[in-house]
Design a protein that fits this description.
This protein is an alpha+beta fold. The protein is built from 4 helices and 6 strands. Helix 1 runs antiparallel to helix 2.
């Protein structure tokens, strides 16, 4: 796939996540997909990704994550987001709902193989989120 095609695949992947269209994620991801929310804690398979994304929406029902920048080279695509949401749902990182609004940056690095996303790595400052929740 071209670099532009890889970027478009990733844009559509995140549109599906924002619409909570979890079935569509299976179409975008390779069968051996792996999500790394932290460097040494892989979630194998699309189901691990879906579980993680559902937790975000369940904790922050007004969850928004617009793409601010997207860069690509070879088989990799980097995406920069600003996350915004209000913690009115389930506990997040062990913190019961606070009703507080949080705003933080996220970087994702995705790798593409055979026109599918095979790996997603998340880079986020968890301590910044906990600080905003006063946890």
């Amino acid at each position: 796939m071209s670099v532009e095609a890889n970027k478009e695949l990733v844009r559509r992947f995140y549109e599906a996540i924002e619409q909570e269209d979890y079935e569509a994620l299976h179409e975008f991801c390779y069968q051996d997909f792996v999500f790394f929310p932290q460097i040494d804690t892989p979630f194998p398979g699309v189901e691990g990704l879906v579980e993680s994304e559902k937790k975000n929406f369940d904790a922050f029902p007004d969850f928004k994550m617009p793409i601010k920048a997207i860069l690509a080279e070879g088989d990799q695509v980097a995406v920069y987001f600003i996350f915004e949401g209000t913690h009115t749902g389930i506990p997040f990182l062990g913190v019961p709902a606070t009703g507080k609004a949080v705003r933080f940056s996220l970087m994702m690095l995705l790798r593409i193989a055979d026109s599918k996303i095979i790996e997603k790595r998340s880079h986020v400052d968890v301590h910044d989120i906990l600080r905003q929740l006063n946890a």
